[in-house]
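Dear all,

This email documents one entry for the complex benchmark we are building for the journal club exercise. For each entry we list the sequence lines for every component of the assembly. Then comes the predicted three-dimensional structure of the complex as a token string, followed by one or two observations. Please use this as the template for your own entries, and keep the labels exactly as they appear.
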Amino acid sequence: MQNRNNLSTLSLAILGLISQRPMSGYDLRKVFTTTPMGHFSSSPGAIYPALKRLEADNLVAGEIEGKNTLRPRRVYTLTKMGKERLVQRLSEPVTSEDIIWRMDDLILRFPFIGNILGLEKTLHFLKVLLQQIEAYIPSLQEHLDNMKDESSLYGAFAMQHGIETYQAHARWARRVIDQLQDKL
Amino acid sequence: MQNRNNLSTLSLAILGLISQRPMSGYDLRKVFTTTPMGHFSSSPGAIYPALKRLEADNLVAGEIEGKNTLRPRRVYTLTKMGKERLVQRLSEPVTSEDIIWRMDDLILRFPFIGNILGLEKTLHFLKVLLQQIEAYIPSLQEHLDNMKDESSLYGAFAMQHGIETYQAHARWARRVIDQLQDKL
DNA sequence: TGAGACATGTAATCGGTTACATGATTCC
DNA sequence: GGAATCATGTAACCGATTACATGTCTCA
């Protein structure tokens, strides 16, 4: 089995974490349960099969640590192909569809882009992200305006929530851009 | 087949929309594609099977409109059981797990709670929501503080993003509470 | 000696995604 | 006549959830 061509969000999280240091399935579960890292299942039924798939695809390599002890750990490392696919996944352009449908994925990508692709790429990522968000907000605003007549009070509040959430994303991006720009 | 006991987010969206007016699968798809209502698949492969399941569970009833025309529509109505289950689903208490894992679901519930359960229940919902968010933010802040040492610059920014997103939710909830309170 | 953390897995089920498939109606 | 919209579906695949299953090690 080889070459599933797209990395799911969970696979991305796993590859990203393993790229920072080799980890076992248990280690990954611990990260997912004890930190607010994305919001991943952390159930063994999700992560062990995911690791198996990544290994079958040759993106990670498992090595048994403590072979002859009674409690061995299978520790995974990024392969060369794994690194390539991770870099490729992180390099994908930020589209308006991402903003609408996959904001979580974008936020997960951010720290990995920083750590792996470096400062300049991160700034570019944030600038495009910001630009896409700023382009999306007016269409939400328009929806809200059209809604005001319909006397759907609660629907309007919900729309307002959406708009404010995106505004919060935008403010965050602007501030991070400012702070990173100083480092250049 | 009967009695799957929990309504998925998609089922909730469908029941909620149908409760406002009877709708066909195509109508539902249109809502999902043309409005920023939650972020649902809107693919026929998701919604038609979902409607079938809800009908098998006796939560909606489909009736063919335009029987003898060449382009009939199957229009679904909420059944009594469907209404009950919807009310029950909307009445579930807001837990800290919801805040962490299912924020989308909560925001989807909000307008339906407003329209179906009424003003008082909505206020209660928002107050508990706000309280849970306010209880959660400090733990995120703590995580961020512990992170500062580790020189994981980008990770810290990502955490900051999480905190600010929850703060935005909290601000929204506070403002809506204020505005609804005036209506009492 | 028992609780809790360490450690890895499988099996059944369920439902979402993608892609395919079909045909009618409306409007230009 | 052709494009867009109306309208409903199926089939293959994939992966997440839930629950089950097993055993070790450490520390109080």
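Observations: Residues 4, 8, 10, 41, 43, 45-46, 49-50, 53, 69-71 of chain B lie near DNA strand C (CB under 10 Å from a C1'). The domain at 9-91 of chain B is CATH 1.10.10.10 (Arc Repressor Mutant, subunit A).
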